[in-house]
Design a protein that fits this description.
By secondary structure, the protein is α/β, with parallel strands linked by helices. The protein is built from 14 helices and 9 strands. Keywords: NAD, Oxidoreductase.
Length: 296
């Protein structure tokens, strides 16, 4: 019997947990935790269990998947009187699906292993595919960690998409940072092109529909085309996530002696939008930055 814990039932976490619950064996169990049980209720109706605290969850789980926004939130899950560390009774693997810097996840593993007397270790497994991929169960999951820890994690994560072990701890986060650099550059290019096309009198939706069938076509264009055409910035993936993601990429680029040609200016634009109060808007809001001429 395997008991899986899942912490963080937001836009990505809730559908991931749903796929895991549907794919677990009859003798397996899924235990949920979030700030309240509101988002957990539909899954509880299907057989998942609720844990009021991370401490309670840790006591009965073999591995715990954590889908929270940033490294400080992961640490909050682990620490304190109601944290994972306080509830450990046997070895547990913490699967960090958050997009954080590779150095942060390595430091987290070292500190948790020391604080738990070796009972708690980390596997990093950030995901790509957005809300659409999470709902469909088609996420790409980039996994880093020790072989003996990763094997059972892959079995669970493959219920939510395709999980691939890329190397030692931190490898998944490096891959996700590269993914985010590509996504950010693509979204920014599409945003800029939409402004140029509109100002030239083109029907932006029609143009993007045509381009999707050519070399410029991509999953990003398919997902974002309507948003750019209608200027819909209602959040799917909040822009402020990009600040930490792009900083993580630049840190890895610096560590490897690689000059970044595009990510620095994009990060500056994102930080400007966040400072202007647009951080909770969808990443498509980068179009607004271009329209207002703030790239100069």
């Amino acid at each position: 019997m395997t008991t899986v814990g899942f912490i963080g039932l937001g836009t990505m976490g809730a559908p991931m947990a749903r796929h895991i619950l549907a794919g677990l064996g009859p003798d397996d169990a899924l235990v949920l935790n979030d700030r309240t049980d509101e988002k957990a209720r539909p899954l509880m109706d299907q057989g998942a269990r609720w844990a009021a605290t991370a401490r309670e969850l840790a006591a009965g789980c073999d591995l715990v998947i954590c889908m929270v926004p940033a490294i400080q939130h992961v640490r909050q899950v682990c620490e304190g009187p109601d944290g994972l560390l306080a509830g450990l009774e046997h070895p547990v693997t913490l699967v960090v699906c958050s997009s954080v810097a590779a150095t942060d996840v390595r430091e987290l593993d070292a500190s948790l292993a020391e604080a738990s007397g070796g009972l708690l270790h980390v596997v990093d497994a950030p995901v790509s595919g957005g809300q659409v991929g999470a709902e469909a169960g088609t996420l790409s999951i980039m996994v880093g960690g020790a072989d003996e820890l990763v094997a059972p994690v892959l079995e669970v994560l493959n219920l939510t998409g395709t999980a691939l072990h890329l190397g030692p701890l931190g490898a998944g986060e490096v891959a996700k940072a590269c993914n985010q650099a590509i996504v950010a550059a693509t979204i920014t290019a599409i945003a800029e092109a939409s402004v140029v096309a509109e100002r030239s009198g083109l029907d932006v939706a029609q143009m993007f529909d045509l381009l999707q069938g050519g070399y410029a076509g991509s999953a990003v264009l398919k997902d974002k085309a309507t948003r750019f055409a209608t200027k819909d910035y209602s959040p799917s993936g909040p822009l402020w996530f990009w600040v930490k993601d792009l900083k993580a990429y630049l840190a890895e680029a610096e560590a490897t002696g690689t000059d970044s040609l595009v990510v620095g200016p994009i990060l500056a634009a994102v930080e400007g939008l966040v400072e202007a109060g647009r951080g909770e808007a969808d990443t498509a809001v980068i179009q607004e930055w271009v329209e207002q001429g703030r790239t100069a």
